[in-house]
Amino acid sequence: METRLEFVPDTVVPDPSGLAAVLDSGEWRRHLRELAYTHWGARCVNDTQTRLLKLQMGNRCTLEIVIGTERGWHYLIGKIYLRDRADVFEAMKKIWRAGLNREAEFWIPCPITYLPSLRLLLQEKVEGMLAKRVFLDGNPGECAEAAERCALWLARFQALAPRQGKIMDVQRILRHGERRVRFIIEARMPFAYKARKLFERLAVSPPALEMMCAGHGDYKPEHLFLLPQRCTVAFDWDCYDIADPCRDAAMFLIYLERLALGALGAVRKLESASQAFLRTYLAASQPGVEVRLRFHKAALYLQEAKRDVGEQHPGWFERAEIMLDQGLRELEL
User: Fold this and answer.
1) DSSP character for 264?
2) What confidence tens digit (pLDDT) does each residue in 230-286 have?
3) Is the pLDDT of residue 3 over 50?
4) Phi, psi at residue 21, to the nearest 5°?
5) Which residues does 137 contact at the CB level (< 8 Å), separation at least 6?
6) CA-CA distance, 244 to 316, in Å (whole number)?
7) CA pair distance 32, 37, nearest whole angstrom
8) SS3 state of residue 204
């Protein structure tokens, strides 16, 4: 059996030997044979091809894994974690069993297995159009339809999925917010006073009533596939949690703005798609969600400003200040 490791162009991998060691180990080959027999009824593995899709330093890497057997080629997505994340696999299984599977219109990738000794999660590879690409390349009608489908997926998930993971209640959000303000201040950013002002407004305007449900935790256009026959698939479950239902909705709206800002030059370039998402989500979700949306949007604007300051990707300074301005504007409405 031959194993080939391919890296995508322009991917910076400071120590690819560590990754290659995992995928070229005898233990990996043993698991491959068990996987092939259990899931595809194959008695031998002839070839594997692995391509690095994304590397998140100090956390995980995401790979495409192609396995060749006498029954054909099988396509998987694998994640190798720095620490044990068997919980992600268990969470995905519960969501799948709750009804968000291939028999439904709204689903998640099928979790295949988790290999604790390798810290490797395997799931099915889903082929489809990323919602992100539709928002960037589609016409207004296509963008509106994509936004509506993303909103309906979220509402269906929140209605069906079991609550699991860390609890993102208001007090935890405020503690995170306080640390983010301190980070921005200690970084000596000239807009630190805006971060402080935004947090002060958050602290005096928490939602009076808090509803909690299953949360994706990182719900954004680049984590959704739009498939034919209106099937919609959400992936990347590393941040799953228990939260106010409108927190994921607020996150999606903010990432639409960041997508528009980064690729189209202005936060309002996808405003019609944002309106379609919000209108559809409010109609399909639990009553009373809208009154808490501003708080969660403002808290997430602060989160994204801190992220920009910490990561300092191109355009970070202007982007961070825009996030703070958006958060302040949100609480003035």
Assistant:
1) I
2) 899 999 999 999 999 999 999 999 999 999 999 999 999 999 999 999 999 999 987
3) no
4) -65, -40
5) none
6) 29
7) 9
8) coil
Could you tell me if 97 and 176 lie in one domain? no
Report the amino acid identity of residue 327. G
Nearest CA to 247 out of 146, 143, 129, 157 is that of: 157
The reply to whether 235 and 144 lie within a common domain is yes
My answer on whether 180 and 319 are in the same domain is yes
Residue 119 gets the label, from left (phi > 0), alpha (psi -120 to 50) or beta, of left
3-state secondary structure of 148: helix
Are residues 155 and 250 both part of a single domain?
A: yes
The burial of 228, by beta-carbon neighbours within 10 Å (0-12 exposed, 13-18 middle, 19 or more buried), is given as: exposed
Q: Output helix, strand, coil percentages for the chain, rounded to the nearest 5.
A: 55, 20, 25
Pairing of strands 241-243, 45-56: unpaired
Q: What is the CA radius of gyration of the chain?
A: 21
- Bridge partners of residue 224, in order along the sequence: 234
The rounded distance, in Å, linking the Cα atoms of 311 and 229 is: 39
Number of domains in the chain: 2
Note whether 279 and 300 are within 8 A (CB): no
Sheet holding 213-215, edge to edge: 166-168, 241-243, 213-215
Establish how many alpha carbons lie within 13 A of residue 289's alpha carbon, considering only the half-sphere containing its beta carbon.
23
Where is 29: in which H helix or E strand?
A: helix 26-40
Average per-residue pLDDT in the chain?
90
Global pTM value:
0.90
Q: CA 181, CA 50: separation in Å to the nearest integer?
A: 41
pLDDT, tens digit, for every residue of 79-136? 999 899 999 999 999 999 999 999 999 999 999 999 998 899 999 999 999 999 999 9
CA atoms within 13 A on the CB side of 271: 5
| CA–CA dist 231, 97 (Å, integer) | 17
Nearest alpha carbon to residue 121 among 132, 134, 133, 112 = 112
Distance between CA atoms of residues 108 and 225, nearest Å = 10
For residue 92, give its domain range.
2-124
CA dist list (Å): 29 to 20, 46, 230: 13, 11, 38
